[in-house]
Amino acid sequence: MLVGIDLGTTNSLVACFRDGKAQVIPNRLGKLLTPSVVAIDEDGMILVGETAREFGILHPLSVASVFKRSMGTDRVFELDGMKFDAEELSRFVLRSLKEDAEVFLGCPVDEAIISVPAYFNDLQRKATKRAGELAGLKVSRIINEPTAAAIAHGVGGNAARPTADGAAQGVGVVCVEASNEDPVDERCLVFDLGGGTFDVSILEFFACIMEVHAIAGDNFIGGEDFTDLLATMFCARVGVARILLDERTQAELMKAAEIAKCKFSESEKVTMTCTINGQMHSEDFTLDEYEQSCQPLLERLRRPIERSLRDADVHLDQLDRIILVGGATRLPVVRRFVEKMFHRAPEALVDPDTAVALGAALQCGMKMRDAEISEVVLTDVCPFTLGTEVVAGNGTFEEPGHFLPIIERNTVIPVSRRQRVSTAHDNQSQVVVKILQGESRMAANNLLLGEITAAVPVGPRGAEAIDVVFTYDLNSLLEVEVTIVSTGETTKMVVQNEEHKLSDEEVARRFERLAYLKQNPREDEANRLQLLRGERLYEESTGERREIIDRAMMEFDRVLNRQDFYEIEVARERLRKFLDSLEG
Ligand code: AMP
Predict the structure, then answer these.
(1) What integer pLDDT is reported at residue 516 of this predicted model?
(2) Ligand 1: distance of its center to the CA of 257 in Å?
(3) Measured between alpha carbons, how far is 169 from 166 in angstroms, rounded to an integer?
Protein backbone atom coordinates (compact mmCIF):
# COMPACT_ATOMS: atom_id res chain seq x y z
CA MET A 1 0.00 0.00 0.00
CA LEU A 2 1.16 3.49 -0.90
CA VAL A 3 0.77 6.40 1.54
CA GLY A 4 1.55 10.13 1.50
CA ILE A 5 3.71 11.49 4.31
CA ASP A 6 4.29 15.05 5.46
CA LEU A 7 7.55 14.78 7.39
CA GLY A 8 7.39 18.17 9.12
CA THR A 9 9.81 20.14 11.25
CA THR A 10 7.38 20.23 14.17
CA ASN A 11 4.72 17.67 13.28
CA SER A 12 4.39 14.80 10.83
CA LEU A 13 1.31 13.23 9.26
CA VAL A 14 0.45 10.21 7.15
CA ALA A 15 -2.45 10.09 4.68
CA CYS A 16 -3.84 7.65 2.14
CA PHE A 17 -5.98 7.72 -0.99
CA ARG A 18 -8.98 5.39 -0.85
CA ASP A 19 -12.44 5.37 -2.42
CA GLY A 20 -11.80 8.58 -4.33
CA LYS A 21 -10.74 10.45 -1.21
CA ALA A 22 -7.53 11.57 0.40
CA GLN A 23 -7.67 10.98 4.10
CA VAL A 24 -5.36 11.73 7.02
CA ILE A 25 -4.73 8.68 9.19
CA PRO A 26 -4.99 9.21 12.96
CA ASN A 27 -2.02 8.05 15.01
CA ARG A 28 -2.06 5.69 17.96
CA LEU A 29 -3.31 8.47 20.19
CA GLY A 30 -6.18 9.20 17.82
CA LYS A 31 -4.51 12.43 16.76
CA LEU A 32 -3.70 13.56 13.25
CA LEU A 33 -0.42 15.24 14.13
CA THR A 34 2.56 13.29 15.41
CA PRO A 35 5.15 15.68 16.83
CA SER A 36 8.49 15.17 15.04
CA VAL A 37 10.21 14.50 18.34
CA VAL A 38 12.32 11.49 19.34
CA ALA A 39 13.49 10.56 22.83
CA ILE A 40 15.18 7.68 24.62
CA ASP A 41 13.73 6.68 27.96
CA GLU A 42 15.57 5.33 31.03
CA ASP A 43 15.38 1.81 29.64
CA GLY A 44 16.88 2.78 26.33
CA MET A 45 13.49 2.64 24.58
CA ILE A 46 12.88 5.02 21.66
CA LEU A 47 9.86 7.27 22.11
CA VAL A 48 8.29 9.19 19.22
CA GLY A 49 5.77 12.01 19.01
CA GLU A 50 3.82 13.44 21.87
CA THR A 51 5.21 10.91 24.34
CA ALA A 52 8.73 11.81 23.38
CA ARG A 53 7.93 15.49 23.74
CA GLU A 54 6.41 14.97 27.15
CA PHE A 55 9.40 12.88 28.24
CA GLY A 56 11.72 15.52 26.94
CA ILE A 57 10.31 18.23 29.20
CA LEU A 58 11.65 16.35 32.19
CA HIS A 59 14.68 14.87 30.44
CA PRO A 60 15.95 17.56 28.10
CA LEU A 61 19.16 15.61 27.44
CA SER A 62 17.27 12.60 26.14
CA VAL A 63 15.17 14.28 23.47
CA ALA A 64 15.68 15.61 19.95
CA SER A 65 13.38 17.84 17.90
CA VAL A 66 13.53 20.16 14.87
CA PHE A 67 16.07 17.77 13.34
CA LYS A 68 14.57 18.21 9.89
CA ARG A 69 16.59 21.42 9.69
CA SER A 70 19.76 19.31 9.80
CA MET A 71 18.68 16.80 7.17
CA GLY A 72 21.53 15.98 4.80
CA THR A 73 24.19 17.44 7.12
CA ASP A 74 26.77 15.82 9.41
CA ARG A 75 25.17 17.25 12.54
CA VAL A 76 25.03 14.69 15.33
CA PHE A 77 22.28 14.68 17.98
CA GLU A 78 23.21 13.12 21.27
CA LEU A 79 20.43 11.44 23.21
CA ASP A 80 21.52 10.09 26.56
CA GLY A 81 25.00 9.51 25.21
CA MET A 82 23.82 7.86 21.97
CA LYS A 83 24.52 9.62 18.70
CA PHE A 84 22.08 9.99 15.79
CA ASP A 85 21.94 12.09 12.67
CA ALA A 86 18.78 13.76 11.34
CA GLU A 87 18.21 10.96 8.87
CA GLU A 88 18.15 8.36 11.63
CA LEU A 89 15.88 10.42 13.87
CA SER A 90 13.48 10.91 10.94
CA ARG A 91 13.51 7.19 10.42
CA PHE A 92 11.97 6.68 13.89
CA VAL A 93 9.17 9.14 13.08
CA LEU A 94 8.51 7.50 9.71
CA ARG A 95 8.46 4.07 11.27
CA SER A 96 5.88 5.20 13.79
CA LEU A 97 3.69 6.69 11.02
CA LYS A 98 4.04 3.50 8.96
CA GLU A 99 2.85 1.40 11.90
CA ASP A 100 -0.12 3.70 12.53
CA ALA A 101 -1.08 3.50 8.86
CA GLU A 102 -0.81 -0.30 8.85
CA VAL A 103 -3.10 -0.62 11.85
CA PHE A 104 -5.60 1.87 10.36
CA LEU A 105 -5.61 0.34 6.87
CA GLY A 106 -5.29 -3.26 7.99
CA CYS A 107 -2.59 -4.06 5.44
CA PRO A 108 1.18 -3.70 5.09
CA VAL A 109 2.38 -0.25 4.03
CA ASP A 110 5.59 -0.51 2.04
CA GLU A 111 5.67 2.52 -0.24
CA ALA A 112 5.44 6.27 0.35
CA ILE A 113 5.41 9.67 -1.30
CA ILE A 114 7.16 12.02 1.11
CA SER A 115 6.96 15.80 0.98
CA VAL A 116 9.96 18.08 1.47
CA PRO A 117 10.36 21.88 1.47
CA ALA A 118 10.75 23.19 -2.07
CA TYR A 119 14.17 24.65 -1.17
CA PHE A 120 15.59 21.26 -0.09
CA ASN A 121 18.65 20.51 -2.18
CA ASP A 122 19.48 17.18 -3.67
CA LEU A 123 21.44 16.10 -0.61
CA GLN A 124 18.52 16.82 1.71
CA ARG A 125 16.10 15.06 -0.64
CA LYS A 126 18.35 12.00 -0.79
CA ALA A 127 18.66 11.97 3.02
CA THR A 128 14.84 12.07 3.27
CA LYS A 129 14.59 9.16 0.85
CA ARG A 130 17.16 7.21 2.86
CA ALA A 131 15.25 7.88 6.10
CA GLY A 132 12.17 6.38 4.41
CA GLU A 133 14.13 3.37 3.27
CA LEU A 134 15.56 2.90 6.77
CA ALA A 135 11.94 2.80 7.99
CA GLY A 136 11.09 0.05 5.51
CA LEU A 137 9.39 2.28 2.95
CA LYS A 138 10.15 2.47 -0.75
CA VAL A 139 10.04 6.20 -1.40
CA SER A 140 8.59 6.31 -4.88
CA ARG A 141 8.45 10.08 -5.09
CA ILE A 142 9.54 13.17 -3.22
CA ILE A 143 7.00 15.97 -3.63
CA ASN A 144 7.49 19.66 -2.83
CA GLU A 145 5.40 20.75 0.14
CA PRO A 146 3.87 23.83 -1.56
CA THR A 147 2.95 21.74 -4.58
CA ALA A 148 1.22 19.21 -2.33
CA ALA A 149 -0.62 22.00 -0.49
CA ALA A 150 -1.76 23.55 -3.77
CA ILE A 151 -3.03 20.18 -5.02
CA ALA A 152 -4.99 19.73 -1.78
CA HIS A 153 -6.54 23.16 -2.33
CA GLY A 154 -7.79 22.08 -5.72
CA VAL A 155 -5.16 23.69 -7.90
CA GLY A 156 -5.00 21.36 -10.90
CA GLY A 157 -8.67 20.46 -10.85
CA ASN A 158 -8.84 17.93 -8.05
CA ALA A 159 -11.03 20.24 -6.04
CA ALA A 160 -10.58 19.94 -2.34
CA ARG A 161 -13.95 19.37 -0.81
CA PRO A 162 -13.60 18.72 2.87
CA THR A 163 -15.88 15.77 3.54
CA ALA A 164 -18.18 15.14 6.47
CA ASP A 165 -16.18 12.12 7.71
CA GLY A 166 -13.61 14.32 9.35
CA ALA A 167 -16.10 16.20 11.46
CA ALA A 168 -17.81 12.92 12.30
CA GLN A 169 -14.56 11.60 13.70
CA GLY A 170 -14.26 14.73 15.78
CA VAL A 171 -10.73 15.39 14.61
CA GLY A 172 -11.25 18.24 12.17
CA VAL A 173 -10.89 17.99 8.42
CA VAL A 174 -9.24 14.71 7.58
CA CYS A 175 -10.47 14.07 4.07
CA VAL A 176 -10.62 15.82 0.74
CA GLU A 177 -12.47 14.43 -2.22
CA ALA A 178 -10.89 14.22 -5.65
CA SER A 179 -13.18 15.67 -8.26
CA ASN A 180 -11.72 15.33 -11.74
CA GLU A 181 -13.20 18.68 -12.77
CA ASP A 182 -11.81 20.56 -15.75
CA PRO A 183 -8.68 22.24 -14.39
CA VAL A 184 -8.40 26.03 -14.46
CA ASP A 185 -5.04 27.65 -15.23
CA GLU A 186 -4.04 29.71 -12.24
CA ARG A 187 -1.17 31.22 -10.33
CA CYS A 188 -0.92 30.94 -6.59
CA LEU A 189 1.32 31.85 -3.71
CA VAL A 190 1.71 29.29 -0.96
CA PHE A 191 2.54 30.89 2.40
CA ASP A 192 3.84 28.14 4.67
CA LEU A 193 4.67 29.08 8.25
CA GLY A 194 5.48 25.98 10.24
CA GLY A 195 6.97 25.58 13.69
CA GLY A 196 10.52 26.48 12.73
CA THR A 197 10.58 27.52 9.10
CA PHE A 198 8.91 29.90 6.70
CA ASP A 199 8.56 29.11 3.01
CA VAL A 200 6.98 31.06 0.21
CA SER A 201 6.41 29.49 -3.18
CA ILE A 202 4.85 30.80 -6.31
CA LEU A 203 3.26 28.08 -8.40
CA GLU A 204 1.64 28.17 -11.76
CA PHE A 205 -0.74 25.57 -13.04
CA PHE A 206 -0.94 25.72 -16.81
CA ALA A 207 -2.09 23.08 -19.30
CA CYS A 208 -2.07 20.33 -16.64
CA ILE A 209 1.50 21.11 -15.59
CA MET A 210 2.23 22.45 -12.13
CA GLU A 211 5.38 24.52 -12.12
CA VAL A 212 7.17 25.95 -9.12
CA HIS A 213 8.19 29.41 -10.33
CA ALA A 214 10.00 30.73 -7.34
CA ILE A 215 10.84 29.68 -3.84
CA ALA A 216 12.12 31.78 -0.99
CA GLY A 217 12.13 31.44 2.73
CA ASP A 218 13.73 31.85 6.08
CA ASN A 219 14.92 28.71 7.84
CA PHE A 220 15.07 30.45 11.15
CA ILE A 221 11.60 31.80 11.73
CA GLY A 222 8.43 29.92 12.58
CA GLY A 223 5.64 29.46 15.07
CA GLU A 224 8.18 28.72 17.82
CA ASP A 225 9.48 32.28 17.60
CA PHE A 226 5.96 33.57 18.21
CA THR A 227 5.74 31.26 21.24
CA ASP A 228 9.15 32.37 22.45
CA LEU A 229 8.08 36.00 22.21
CA LEU A 230 5.03 35.38 24.40
CA ALA A 231 7.24 33.57 26.93
CA THR A 232 9.56 36.60 27.03
CA MET A 233 6.59 38.98 27.45
CA PHE A 234 5.36 36.81 30.33
CA CYS A 235 8.74 36.87 32.12
CA ALA A 236 8.95 40.63 31.71
CA ARG A 237 5.47 41.01 33.23
CA VAL A 238 6.17 38.82 36.24
CA GLY A 239 9.63 40.31 36.67
CA VAL A 240 11.82 37.20 36.32
CA ALA A 241 15.05 37.05 34.35
CA ARG A 242 14.38 34.36 31.76
CA ILE A 243 18.05 33.65 31.24
CA LEU A 244 18.42 32.51 34.85
CA LEU A 245 15.69 29.85 34.63
CA ASP A 246 16.78 26.22 34.56
CA GLU A 247 16.13 24.05 31.51
CA ARG A 248 13.08 22.39 32.98
CA THR A 249 11.37 25.68 33.88
CA GLN A 250 12.26 27.02 30.42
CA ALA A 251 10.50 24.01 28.87
CA GLU A 252 7.44 24.51 31.07
CA LEU A 253 7.39 28.21 30.25
CA MET A 254 7.44 27.43 26.52
CA LYS A 255 4.66 24.91 26.95
CA ALA A 256 2.49 27.43 28.81
CA ALA A 257 3.25 30.07 26.17
CA GLU A 258 2.35 27.62 23.40
CA ILE A 259 -1.03 26.91 24.99
CA ALA A 260 -1.76 30.62 25.49
CA LYS A 261 -0.64 31.49 21.95
CA CYS A 262 -2.97 28.91 20.40
CA LYS A 263 -5.89 30.37 22.37
CA PHE A 264 -5.54 33.60 20.37
CA SER A 265 -7.23 31.72 17.51
CA GLU A 266 -10.45 31.75 19.54
CA SER A 267 -10.17 34.78 21.77
CA GLU A 268 -8.81 38.33 21.69
CA LYS A 269 -7.64 38.00 25.26
CA VAL A 270 -5.73 35.05 26.69
CA THR A 271 -4.41 34.11 30.10
CA MET A 272 -1.02 32.50 30.44
CA THR A 273 -0.25 30.55 33.58
CA CYS A 274 3.10 29.13 34.64
CA THR A 275 4.83 28.14 37.87
CA ILE A 276 8.26 29.69 38.23
CA ASN A 277 10.52 29.04 41.22
CA GLY A 278 7.62 27.42 43.06
CA GLN A 279 5.28 30.36 42.56
CA MET A 280 2.33 30.28 40.20
CA HIS A 281 1.92 33.31 37.97
CA SER A 282 -1.05 34.19 35.78
CA GLU A 283 -1.01 37.02 33.26
CA ASP A 284 -3.53 38.33 30.71
CA PHE A 285 -2.47 39.41 27.23
CA THR A 286 -4.61 41.08 24.57
CA LEU A 287 -4.27 40.24 20.90
CA ASP A 288 -3.53 43.89 20.12
CA GLU A 289 -0.58 44.13 22.51
CA TYR A 290 0.74 40.78 21.33
CA GLU A 291 0.40 41.87 17.71
CA GLN A 292 2.36 45.00 18.44
CA SER A 293 5.23 43.01 19.95
CA CYS A 294 5.11 40.64 16.95
CA GLN A 295 5.92 43.41 14.45
CA PRO A 296 9.65 42.61 14.12
CA LEU A 297 8.81 38.93 13.49
CA LEU A 298 6.12 39.85 10.95
CA GLU A 299 8.58 42.13 9.17
CA ARG A 300 10.90 39.15 8.73
CA LEU A 301 8.12 37.38 6.83
CA ARG A 302 7.87 40.21 4.33
CA ARG A 303 11.30 39.87 2.74
CA PRO A 304 11.01 36.29 1.39
CA ILE A 305 7.58 37.15 -0.03
CA GLU A 306 8.98 40.14 -1.90
CA ARG A 307 11.93 38.10 -3.10
CA SER A 308 9.73 35.30 -4.45
CA LEU A 309 7.51 37.78 -6.30
CA ARG A 310 10.56 39.43 -7.81
CA ASP A 311 12.12 36.10 -8.81
CA ALA A 312 8.87 34.95 -10.43
CA ASP A 313 8.40 38.37 -12.00
CA VAL A 314 4.87 38.47 -10.64
CA HIS A 315 2.98 41.40 -9.16
CA LEU A 316 0.75 40.96 -6.11
CA ASP A 317 -2.44 41.41 -8.10
CA GLN A 318 -1.43 38.82 -10.69
CA LEU A 319 -1.85 36.09 -8.08
CA ASP A 320 -5.10 34.17 -8.31
CA ARG A 321 -4.87 32.54 -4.92
CA ILE A 322 -3.03 32.91 -1.62
CA ILE A 323 -2.91 29.58 0.18
CA LEU A 324 -2.02 29.29 3.85
CA VAL A 325 -0.17 26.22 5.08
CA GLY A 326 1.52 25.33 8.36
CA GLY A 327 0.18 25.40 11.90
CA ALA A 328 1.42 28.90 12.65
CA THR A 329 -0.83 30.44 9.98
CA ARG A 330 -3.67 29.84 12.45
CA LEU A 331 -2.32 32.70 14.50
CA PRO A 332 -4.62 35.71 13.91
CA VAL A 333 -1.65 38.12 13.82
CA VAL A 334 -0.19 36.16 10.90
CA ARG A 335 -3.53 36.08 9.03
CA ARG A 336 -4.00 39.81 9.53
CA PHE A 337 -0.48 40.42 8.25
CA VAL A 338 -1.18 38.35 5.09
CA GLU A 339 -4.50 40.08 4.58
CA LYS A 340 -2.88 43.52 4.86
CA MET A 341 0.00 42.64 2.58
CA PHE A 342 -2.08 41.03 -0.19
CA HIS A 343 -5.19 43.21 0.24
CA ARG A 344 -7.41 40.15 0.41
CA ALA A 345 -8.35 37.32 2.72
CA PRO A 346 -6.10 34.30 2.26
CA GLU A 347 -7.49 30.81 1.66
CA ALA A 348 -7.31 28.12 4.24
CA LEU A 349 -10.06 25.90 2.90
CA VAL A 350 -8.19 22.83 3.99
CA ASP A 351 -6.81 22.66 7.49
CA PRO A 352 -3.34 24.31 7.32
CA ASP A 353 -1.89 21.39 9.28
CA THR A 354 -3.17 18.66 7.01
CA ALA A 355 -3.00 20.26 3.55
CA VAL A 356 0.47 18.94 2.67
CA ALA A 357 -0.27 15.35 3.76
CA LEU A 358 -3.59 15.40 1.89
CA GLY A 359 -1.84 16.71 -1.22
CA ALA A 360 0.75 13.94 -0.96
CA ALA A 361 -2.10 11.42 -0.67
CA LEU A 362 -3.83 12.90 -3.76
CA GLN A 363 -0.50 12.46 -5.52
CA CYS A 364 -0.63 8.79 -4.43
CA GLY A 365 -4.03 8.59 -6.16
CA MET A 366 -2.47 10.03 -9.32
CA LYS A 367 0.40 7.58 -9.12
CA MET A 368 -2.00 4.68 -8.73
CA ARG A 369 -3.79 6.12 -11.77
CA ASP A 370 -7.03 6.20 -9.89
CA ALA A 371 -9.88 6.90 -12.34
CA GLU A 372 -11.41 9.45 -10.00
CA ILE A 373 -8.50 11.82 -10.07
CA SER A 374 -6.98 13.93 -12.83
CA GLU A 375 -3.24 13.78 -13.37
CA VAL A 376 -1.10 16.82 -12.61
CA VAL A 377 2.42 16.85 -14.01
CA LEU A 378 4.90 18.33 -11.55
CA THR A 379 8.11 20.16 -12.35
CA ASP A 380 10.99 21.34 -10.21
CA VAL A 381 13.33 24.32 -10.00
CA CYS A 382 17.07 24.61 -9.48
CA PRO A 383 17.24 26.08 -5.94
CA PHE A 384 20.62 27.83 -6.31
CA THR A 385 22.52 29.79 -8.95
CA LEU A 386 25.15 28.01 -11.04
CA GLY A 387 27.79 29.88 -12.98
CA THR A 388 31.45 30.48 -13.68
CA GLU A 389 34.26 32.93 -12.85
CA VAL A 390 35.13 35.80 -15.17
CA VAL A 391 37.12 38.99 -15.28
CA ALA A 392 34.58 41.80 -15.13
CA GLY A 393 35.17 45.24 -16.55
CA ASN A 394 34.26 47.88 -19.07
CA GLY A 395 37.42 48.18 -21.16
CA THR A 396 39.18 50.75 -18.97
CA PHE A 397 38.74 49.03 -15.64
CA GLU A 398 38.97 45.32 -14.89
CA GLU A 399 38.38 43.20 -11.84
CA PRO A 400 39.06 39.46 -11.78
CA GLY A 401 37.23 36.90 -9.68
CA HIS A 402 33.68 37.85 -10.61
CA PHE A 403 30.83 35.35 -10.62
CA LEU A 404 28.93 35.07 -13.88
CA PRO A 405 25.53 33.39 -13.28
CA ILE A 406 24.60 30.96 -16.06
CA ILE A 407 21.60 29.14 -14.55
CA GLU A 408 19.91 31.48 -12.09
CA ARG A 409 18.21 30.13 -8.99
CA ASN A 410 14.53 29.24 -9.43
CA THR A 411 14.99 28.30 -13.08
CA VAL A 412 12.60 25.49 -13.98
CA ILE A 413 14.52 22.27 -14.63
CA PRO A 414 15.55 20.45 -16.76
CA VAL A 415 17.35 23.41 -18.27
CA SER A 416 20.28 24.08 -20.56
CA ARG A 417 21.90 27.52 -20.86
CA ARG A 418 24.77 28.70 -23.05
CA GLN A 419 27.09 31.60 -22.24
CA ARG A 420 29.87 32.89 -24.50
CA VAL A 421 33.04 34.20 -22.83
CA SER A 422 36.43 35.11 -24.27
CA THR A 423 40.10 34.89 -23.34
CA ALA A 424 41.09 37.37 -20.63
CA HIS A 425 44.86 37.74 -21.28
CA ASP A 426 47.24 38.20 -24.20
CA ASN A 427 49.03 35.01 -25.31
CA GLN A 428 46.85 32.79 -23.19
CA SER A 429 47.29 29.12 -24.17
CA GLN A 430 44.58 27.60 -22.03
CA VAL A 431 41.34 28.52 -20.29
CA VAL A 432 40.18 27.26 -16.91
CA VAL A 433 36.40 27.27 -16.64
CA LYS A 434 35.37 27.12 -12.99
CA ILE A 435 32.00 25.59 -12.15
CA LEU A 436 30.50 27.46 -9.22
CA GLN A 437 27.36 27.34 -7.10
CA GLY A 438 26.13 30.19 -4.91
CA GLU A 439 24.64 33.65 -4.76
CA SER A 440 27.64 35.91 -4.14
CA ARG A 441 28.84 38.25 -6.88
CA MET A 442 32.45 37.30 -6.06
CA ALA A 443 33.48 33.84 -7.28
CA ALA A 444 35.63 33.08 -4.21
CA ASN A 445 32.59 33.29 -1.94
CA ASN A 446 30.75 30.65 -3.94
CA LEU A 447 31.25 26.92 -3.88
CA LEU A 448 33.64 25.44 -6.42
CA LEU A 449 32.05 22.28 -7.85
CA GLY A 450 34.74 21.57 -10.42
CA GLU A 451 36.75 23.04 -13.28
CA ILE A 452 37.46 22.33 -16.91
CA THR A 453 40.79 23.21 -18.51
CA ALA A 454 40.90 23.53 -22.31
CA ALA A 455 43.67 24.58 -24.74
CA VAL A 456 43.11 27.75 -26.80
CA PRO A 457 45.09 29.02 -29.82
CA VAL A 458 47.51 31.70 -28.60
CA GLY A 459 46.49 35.24 -29.55
CA PRO A 460 45.64 38.65 -28.17
CA ARG A 461 43.25 38.93 -25.25
CA GLY A 462 39.59 38.58 -26.24
CA ALA A 463 40.44 36.97 -29.59
CA GLU A 464 39.19 33.51 -28.71
CA ALA A 465 35.53 32.86 -27.95
CA ILE A 466 34.54 30.04 -25.59
CA ASP A 467 31.01 28.64 -25.31
CA VAL A 468 30.11 27.34 -21.89
CA VAL A 469 26.92 25.26 -21.68
CA PHE A 470 25.43 24.29 -18.30
CA THR A 471 22.74 21.59 -18.33
CA TYR A 472 20.93 20.77 -15.09
CA ASP A 473 18.53 17.84 -15.11
CA LEU A 474 15.71 16.53 -12.92
CA ASN A 475 18.12 14.29 -11.01
CA SER A 476 20.19 17.34 -10.02
CA LEU A 477 23.04 16.32 -12.30
CA LEU A 478 24.96 19.23 -13.75
CA GLU A 479 26.70 18.71 -17.07
CA VAL A 480 29.12 21.37 -18.25
CA GLU A 481 30.38 21.57 -21.80
CA VAL A 482 33.16 23.92 -22.89
CA THR A 483 33.70 24.55 -26.62
CA ILE A 484 36.53 26.61 -28.10
CA VAL A 485 34.64 28.26 -30.93
CA SER A 486 37.56 28.63 -33.40
CA THR A 487 38.74 25.00 -33.14
CA GLY A 488 35.40 23.37 -32.34
CA GLU A 489 37.15 21.39 -29.59
CA THR A 490 34.74 20.35 -26.83
CA THR A 491 35.39 19.19 -23.25
CA LYS A 492 32.60 17.85 -20.99
CA MET A 493 32.25 17.24 -17.29
CA VAL A 494 29.40 15.88 -15.17
CA VAL A 495 29.29 17.26 -11.62
CA GLN A 496 27.97 14.68 -9.23
CA ASN A 497 29.92 15.29 -6.10
CA GLU A 498 27.02 15.84 -3.71
CA GLU A 499 29.22 15.83 -0.64
CA HIS A 500 30.35 19.28 -1.67
CA LYS A 501 26.97 20.86 -2.10
CA LEU A 502 26.35 23.61 0.40
CA SER A 503 23.41 23.65 2.75
CA ASP A 504 21.84 27.01 3.64
CA GLU A 505 23.57 26.96 7.03
CA GLU A 506 26.97 26.28 5.46
CA VAL A 507 26.51 29.19 3.08
CA ALA A 508 25.64 31.47 6.03
CA ARG A 509 28.66 30.25 8.03
CA ARG A 510 30.95 30.77 5.08
CA PHE A 511 29.77 34.32 4.54
CA GLU A 512 30.11 35.16 8.22
CA ARG A 513 33.66 33.83 8.32
CA LEU A 514 34.65 35.69 5.18
CA ALA A 515 33.12 38.94 6.36
CA TYR A 516 35.04 38.61 9.64
CA LEU A 517 38.36 37.97 7.95
CA LYS A 518 38.21 40.88 5.54
CA GLN A 519 40.68 43.59 6.62
CA ASN A 520 40.91 46.63 4.44
CA PRO A 521 39.43 50.16 4.36
CA ARG A 522 36.06 48.57 3.75
CA GLU A 523 35.93 47.84 7.47
CA ASP A 524 34.86 51.42 7.86
CA GLU A 525 31.32 50.90 9.07
CA ALA A 526 29.39 53.26 6.82
CA ASN A 527 31.07 51.80 3.75
CA ARG A 528 30.64 48.30 5.04
CA LEU A 529 26.94 48.84 5.59
CA GLN A 530 26.38 49.89 1.99
CA LEU A 531 28.59 47.05 0.76
CA LEU A 532 26.56 44.57 2.78
CA ARG A 533 23.32 46.05 1.52
CA GLY A 534 24.63 45.81 -2.02
CA GLU A 535 25.64 42.20 -1.51
CA ARG A 536 22.26 41.35 -0.03
CA LEU A 537 20.33 43.10 -2.78
CA TYR A 538 22.49 41.39 -5.36
CA GLU A 539 21.69 38.03 -3.81
CA GLU A 540 18.00 38.86 -3.66
CA SER A 541 17.95 39.85 -7.32
CA THR A 542 18.32 38.09 -10.64
CA GLY A 543 19.01 39.03 -14.28
CA GLU A 544 19.35 42.67 -15.32
CA ARG A 545 18.84 43.97 -11.80
CA ARG A 546 21.85 41.91 -10.70
CA GLU A 547 23.96 43.38 -13.46
CA ILE A 548 23.23 46.98 -12.50
CA ILE A 549 23.94 46.26 -8.83
CA ASP A 550 27.18 44.54 -9.82
CA ARG A 551 28.22 47.60 -11.86
CA ALA A 552 27.40 49.99 -9.01
CA MET A 553 29.33 47.83 -6.54
CA MET A 554 32.33 47.61 -8.85
CA GLU A 555 32.32 51.37 -9.20
CA PHE A 556 32.26 51.77 -5.41
CA ASP A 557 35.02 49.16 -4.97
CA ARG A 558 37.15 51.13 -7.37
CA VAL A 559 36.68 54.37 -5.40
CA LEU A 560 37.43 52.59 -2.11
CA ASN A 561 40.69 51.28 -3.50
CA ARG A 562 41.81 54.83 -4.34
CA GLN A 563 41.46 55.68 -0.60
CA ASP A 564 40.45 59.31 -1.16
CA PHE A 565 38.24 60.16 1.82
CA TYR A 566 36.17 62.86 0.10
CA GLU A 567 35.65 60.82 -3.03
CA ILE A 568 34.63 57.80 -0.97
CA GLU A 569 32.00 59.87 0.86
CA VAL A 570 30.47 61.12 -2.37
CA ALA A 571 30.51 57.64 -3.91
CA ARG A 572 29.02 56.05 -0.81
CA GLU A 573 26.16 58.55 -0.77
CA ARG A 574 25.54 57.85 -4.45
CA LEU A 575 25.50 54.10 -3.77
CA ARG A 576 23.20 54.54 -0.77
CA LYS A 577 20.67 56.51 -2.82
CA PHE A 578 20.85 53.94 -5.58
CA LEU A 579 20.26 51.05 -3.15
CA ASP A 580 17.42 53.01 -1.50
CA SER A 581 15.78 53.41 -4.89
CA LEU A 582 16.07 49.66 -5.49
CA GLU A 583 14.47 48.86 -2.18
CA GLY A 584 11.65 51.25 -2.98
P1 AMP B 1 3.74 22.83 11.73
O2 AMP B 1 5.25 22.82 11.68
O3 AMP B 1 3.11 23.19 10.44
O4 AMP B 1 3.17 21.63 12.35
O5 AMP B 1 3.33 24.06 12.71
C6 AMP B 1 3.61 24.04 14.05
C7 AMP B 1 3.43 25.43 14.61
O8 AMP B 1 2.06 25.82 14.49
C9 AMP B 1 3.77 25.50 16.08
O10 AMP B 1 4.63 26.60 16.30
C11 AMP B 1 2.42 25.74 16.74
O12 AMP B 1 2.55 26.56 17.88
C13 AMP B 1 1.66 26.47 15.67
N14 AMP B 1 0.20 26.35 15.88
C15 AMP B 1 -0.56 25.25 15.83
N16 AMP B 1 -1.85 25.55 16.11
C17 AMP B 1 -1.91 26.87 16.34
C18 AMP B 1 -2.95 27.81 16.69
N19 AMP B 1 -4.20 27.44 16.86
N20 AMP B 1 -2.61 29.11 16.84
C21 AMP B 1 -1.33 29.51 16.68
N22 AMP B 1 -0.30 28.70 16.34
C23 AMP B 1 -0.58 27.39 16.18
Answers:
(1) 39
(2) 12
(3) 5
